[in-house]
Fold:
Amino acid sequence: MTHALSARQLAALLPGLSGARPVYRHLFEGVSALILDGRVPLHVRLPAERALATALGLSRPTVTSAYELLREHGYAHSRRGSGTWTALPEEVVPHKVSRALPAPDAAIDLARAAPGLPSEVLDDALARVAPQLAVYTRGSGYHPYGLPGLRAAVADRFTRRGLPTVPDQVLITSGAQHALSLVLGLLAAPGDRVLVENPSYPNALEAVRRARLRLVPTPVSEDGWDVEAVEAAFRGAVPRLALLTPDFHNPTGLLMPEESRARIARAARAYGTWLVIDETMAGLALDGPAPAPFASRARSGGAGGVITLGSMSKTHWGGLRIGWLRAPAQLVTELAGQRIATDLGGSVLDQLLAHTLLDAGDGPLRGRLEALRGQRAALADALAEHLPRWTWQLPPGGLSLWVDLGAPVATALAERLLDHGVRIESGACFATDPGVFENRLRIPYTMPPAVLHEAVRRMAATMAEGLRAPSPARRPHLVV
Structure:
């Protein structure tokens, strides 16, 4: 990784400054926001003041004043003879870490679209697991492929959904995000192109960026996937991988039509692109049957080019940290080898719990789905009552509404809501490019109806107060 940022690179990342007053403060806020968002790394040298002034068409004193503010607020420090380097204020936790921190006790946390696990379900599972655990403690505890029983259970799950699968095609991982990182590390090299949806899951986008891969965004609108744009991206960019969430897409909640799946599968085969299909939401069908696996459509041409990611985080509980991927058996072996470098295997206890929960079948999940239907209706009713100018489409599944605010105020609203005890992220967090989806909020319906109603009431009160420009230093940046 480079230790210096050129003036042209920084200028390309910054928002437009035309009309901003005072310019030096807006420049400071833009650079500090990039540092907080991880788009400008820590401990890299910023461009020389004269070079940045030329690149931005500003005077050198303007850039000098902005750099002074960066140093004053702890976002930069200077070394004699070696320039100005990025830093982070001591009191600020890097947002890649703060994303995983719990909300303050008084906060309604709408930044996490993930359910909890009822205590009685966990108690029952633990009671069933205890006798099994004693058997495993006699060995080393390292299982790079995952416990055989859990791999078989996941394989059976795919088979029941219409995609015949054997355990050798399954790798158990520490969540779907871990599975994605393994795939990116094995199948792509820095500079390779990856087709992604826009909007998309922020942590997946971040994993692609950290692997130093180039994003090829394709739009997902209220009308769904622009399949012609996806096909054009395959032709023009010939991406190494395509990362898609066709089942109750996060954040829109949309379900990809059958015809679109078939066309995308054909295009991927034609250009030799690996399809990486995120199915973490597939079990959360609220208005109809759960969809068959995407890879089942690809079998006529060979499912060898499809990797399917799954997880228990959205259907059961994220605290288990259990995910999986389904791929050709040889690729699973190579991915297990990739895993050894950083992770010798997942927690045996968590895997035994996961196996027990999967063995319980759809009984507990049916109760969860019924609760989600009620919470979805409660959120929609509250929005219609308190914020009738906001619009949305009721998704057929998933965990959240993708709400159009009618104006680009999402980031300002998210910051002001912190003062009202509500934590949420703006739609911009789900964008492949900065400044996009500022008119959107992803609002999960994973909380009880009364809590959702109170959260919406606070949103309405905040909107009625009026919004000021957001301060980048205060944003929590937590998205799950």
Remarks:
- The two ends are 27 Å apart (CA to CA).
- Residues 363-386 form the longest helix (24 residues).
